[in-house]
Amino acid sequence: MKLRLRLFEFEDLPWFPAVIRAGMMDYLRFMISALGTYRPIAPLLAEGLRRTSQTTVLELGAGAGGGTETVWRALEAQGVRDVRITLTDLYPQPAAWADIAERTQGRIEHEAEAVNALAVPAHLLGFRTIFSAFHHFPPEAATAMLRDAVRAGTGIGVFEGAGKHWLELLLAVTVLPVAQLLLTPFFRPFRLSRLVFTYLVPIIPLCTIWDGSVSLLRMYSTGELLHLAHSADPAGLFAWQAGKKRHWWGPQVTYLIGWPKP
Fold first, then answer.
1. Same domain, yes or no: 16 and 116
2. CA dist list (Å): 177 to 4, 26, 96, 123, 146
3. Which of 51, 149, 200, 202 is the most buried (most CB within 10 A)?
4. What is the pLDDT of residues 200-243, one digit of tens each?
């Protein structure tokens, strides 16, 4: 799919109800975690941590933390011991994050205050990552995010849980909504509001269908990702690579990763 459209997503709108946004993020977290979407990029991230001598991953735009536990466990399987992950977002999800912290004995922690991914506070250290969210940023903002990482001298990895194919768009409007209706009662932590706005007033699934479809249409290609990286790093201070990693059961992850040159 070469088409890229700048359509809006509900979760980006400042006035969008927090309870609906949280319900959508809970679904995304459940699906990404259950499917192990980001497991294939663990070797890339492990290499980034080794090259930058860091043991902390700073996740930007973390949403509800979808897939973070899978990545953490996959990193340990790659031999990256004692790695910690700090979750941040412009719209923090403290309830979801507290649940993750409890399950991981505090190895995945969070920043309680809102964090702008384009200007990360100096006290938040670590190899920066952004999962399933880079497409939310128009080219100017996306470049600013990468430039901020270059300026800070820290590595950064951009990961999108799709390969940008038409089949993925078809799944987003057919199979995945059905899965959402079937699986919602099993999402944790439990929220009565999630059930109300899924089954009685189905705002969450309808907005999820729209945002999921638009996400694919807004995704950057690997060539576009490299162009953004070079625009953010005209002096060539970082080593950059972009590509796609395929999961063992079929789906792809599109990525851009960079770290300071020796």
1. no
2. 23, 14, 22, 40, 33
3. 149
4. 999 999 999 999 999 999 999 999 999 999 999 999 999 999 99
